Amino acid sequence: MQVVDRKCTRRQIALVDAYVANGGNLTKAAQEAGYADGNSGRVSAYKAMKTPHVQQYLMQRVAEELGQHAAMAVGTVSALAKNGKSEYVKLQAAQDLLDRAGFKPIDRSQVQVAGDIKVSIDLG
Q1: For residue 106, what pLDDT is reported?
Q2: CA 22 – CA 16 distance, rounded (Å)
């Protein structure tokens, strides 16, 4: 990601924050952020979202949201591993926890090549 010197305006920040909060509805976010109603507001918001400094802020906000929800997700998977209604659910949750902790089994594959390879390059 490239570093952009230009800062977002308050309205652009409000647009991105509303966009992230509502799950990606740009029309709704544009209205909440104070962009003009109708098609022109949506177009202005769309153009704003395409600028590098707004994209950079959007990526930052998405990363923050994911970080905040990661703890909840780990708690959910842990609860399923302990209290799942079926052995299959418990197994899948336990495997997911182990995979994410770095204890994923090694994927083994064996490739065998048989035969002769002849390469002929004619430069003349």
Answers
A1: 77
A2: 10
Boundaries of every domain in the chain: 10-100
| CA 45 to chain CA mean position, Å | 21
Q: What is the mean pLDDT of the chain?
A: 87
Query: What is the residue-wise DSSP string for 51-97?
Result: SHHHHHHHHHHHHHHHHHHHHHHHHHHHHHHHH-SSHHHHHHHHHHH
Alpha-carbon distance values, 86 to 19, 89, 90, 93, 103 (Å): 38, 5, 6, 11, 23
Amino acid occupying residue 62: V
Beta carbons of 49 and 61 less than 8 angstroms apart: no
Residue with tokens 């740009």: 26
Query: Residue 122 is encoded by which pair of tokens?
Result: 């004619």
Indicate yes or no: pTM above 0.85: no
- Distance CA(117)–CA(107), nearest Å, equals 28
